[in-house]
Design a protein that fits this description.
Order of helices and strands: HHHH
Distance between the termini: 39 Å
Structural class: mainly alpha
Number of strands: 0
Shape: flat
Length: about 110
């Protein structure tokens, strides 16, 4: 849309601004973070919508999600940072590589 001559100047400008805001290390890192978290939330949400789901199973699913976030947060963050770096390199987005603590328990 940025270079589409069929679009209005306002639309092209809006597309350019959106593209500039999306192609940042922060945004691309959050993509990796939310992809991981939302996948798990979506799976639980679908189970919760099942009419045969009982409260005990629902509580176990929600506790498992809470435990995952609490216990694996270092791995979740490290994975998101890695995904952000990979996407930045793929799309030629400038970023400053910062040293980070590697957790031995991460996959």
């Amino acid at each position: 849309m940025v270079e589409d001559a069929d679009e209005t100047p306002e639309t092209r400008s809006d597309a350019r601004n959106l593209c500039n805001r999306m192609l940042t290390y922060d945004f691309l890192t959050l993509l990796g973070f939310w992809k991981n978290i939302i996948t798990r939330i979506d799976r639980i949400q679908k189970r919760l919508q099942d009419p045969s789901m009982n409260f005990h199973s629902a509580a176990l699913d929600l506790k498992a999600l809470k435990d995952y976030v609490n216990n694996d947060r270092e791995c979740i963050v490290n994975e998101a940072l890695t995904i952000g770096e990979i996407l930045c390199e793929e799309w030629n987005v400038q970023f400053e590589k910062r040293p980070r603590k590697k957790n031995e328990n991460c996959r």
